[in-house]
Design brief:
Blueprint (H helix, E strand, L loop, with lengths): L10 H9 L13 H5 L11 H9 L2 H5 L12 H5 L6 H15 L5 H5 L6 H23 L12 H4 L2 H30 L18 H14 L12 H33 L4 H7 L8 H26 L9 H26 L2 H20 L8 H14 L16
Helix pairs in contact: 8-16, 10-17, 11-17, 12-13, 12-14, 14-15, 15-16
């Protein structure tokens, strides 16, 4: 005789879900249009219908351990076709937002990102840190807006050796360690997921490395899965191109930062390296050209993503403050970065140093709080999709085709 299963709804979880973008979940009446419409949903136990039921019932444990919330690419096809305006895509996005916020401690960072009233708290940590450095160095240089040989040199006020580089090295290490803990917690939450493999598809279980390479090739580098995700319209193209270009922009800027760091610190051992990456660089310098290309790509991609979000139909696709927080932060980084270069070239020190100060604060906020922000999906989604392939929830490519003659 089967035992009764007692369901204990978590009403607080439902409220939290509604606050971060799942406010329309109660409109769902289980018609299953969303699961039928989704071109990426597996045929066996498809999403997002079951997630809508679990969300309405407040089944927190089922949802936070559900690998399927990471398989959605948020194209919005299900929300567009929903006859009740329940916005399933937003609900899945809200679940991922909650996962980002609470993946690791201190989870207060994630909570602060979900409401504008907490923005001063997030900015206060780096703002105070760099303000103290500014005051100390102003005393050393004799001015809050010092010039080195008649020129604006940001490293003259914020020296890289004992302010910029050490702080960001610690910030990067903290971010990497936090992501490690987050991925470990994420994979541990999937321990009860069934392992399913198609007969004849592969002769042996795929390795994690094979699955990771497949995810990078199909999900990260080419975004080819997005082309399978619903009908393509102008908004989809803006999202596709915006995400692809912003990734390319960050790659360019990461290469530039790496060259400058290696040249600076390596130059202390090999003097020739110092000349390669010494800052500030002239505009004709190859590294500077790459940096400016990255900046242009970043601004253009932000324009695409912002236009898409502003023009989307709010009845089918909502935007929470958590979504706008990340977009606004990257806009701040891009805007202050471009302005810092222009103001330095024009020699307006009284504006250049404050703008550069804001740039440092924004970059610190992006790096240190990255594991709790929406941009954390670069790591968490990659890990989830890799594991989904590893356990057979998502199929791997067929290794070989066999022909039988009767």
């Amino acid at each position: 005789m089967e035992k009764d299963v007692r369901i204990k709804p978590d009403l607080q979880f439902i409220k939290e879900l509604q606050e971060v973008g799942g406010d329309a979940v109660k409109k769902c009446y289980q018609c299953a249009t969303c699961s039928v419409a989704c071109p990426l949903s597996p045929a066996d136990n498809p999403y997002p219908r079951k997630e809508m039921v679990w969300a309405q019932w407040g089944l927190k444990d089922k949802l936070v351990n559900d690998i399927d919330i990471w398989l959605c690419h948020n194209c919005g096809q299900c929300s567009d076709l929903c006859p009740r305006g329940a916005r399933p895509a937003d609900m899945l996005a809200a679940l991922r937002n909650m996962a980002y916020q609470k993946m690791v401690t201190p989870s207060c960072f994630g909570k602060w990102m979900s409401s504008p009233k907490h923005l001063p708290k997030l900015a206060a940590i780096p703002a105070v840190l760099y303000m103290v450095i500014w005051f100390i160095m102003a005393g050393v240089r004799g001015s809050f807006f010092p010039l080195e040989d008649g020129k604006i040199v940001y490293g003259y006020l914020f020296p890289g050796d004992f302010t910029i580089d050490p702080i960001f090295m610690i910030a990067f290490g903290f971010m990497a360690w936090t992501f490690y803990r987050g991925v470990k917690n994420l994979i541990a939450s999937f321990k009860d997921q069934p392992k399913v493999f198609a007969v004849g598809d592969k002769s042996e279980r795929p390795s994690l490395l094979e699955c990771f390479v497949d995810v990078c090739r199909k999900e990260i580098l080419t975004h080819s899965k997005w082309k399978e995700c619903g009908d393509t319209d102008e908004a989809d193209e803006q999202k596709f191109n915006g995400h692809r270009l912003i990734m390319l922009a960050f790659v360019c800027l990461m290469i530039v930062t790496g060259i400058v760091a290696v040249a600076h610190w390596g130059g202390k051992v090999i003097p020739l390296l110092h000349a390669i990456g010494h800052t500030p660089m002239p505009l004709w310098h190859p590294v500077k050209i790459l940096a400016n290309i990255g900046a242009v790509l970043l601004v253009y991609s932000l324009l695409l993503l912002t236009k898409r979000r502003l023009n989307q139909d709010e009845s089918a696709h909502g935007s929470s403050y958590y979504d706008w927080y990340l977009l606004g932060l990257i806009w701040t980084i891009a805007g202050t970065g471009v302005m810092s270069e222009l103001l330095r070239l024009f020699g307006i020190a009284i504006l250049a140093y404050p703008v550069y100060y804001v740039h440092l604060v924004a970059v610190f906020m992006m790096f240190v709080y990255l594991p709790w922000s929406k941009l954390g999906h670069l790591v968490y989604r990659t890990a989830a999709l890799t594991y989904a392939r590893y356990i057979g929830r998502l199929p791997m490519p067929v290794r070989e085709e066999k022909t039988f003659t009767l």
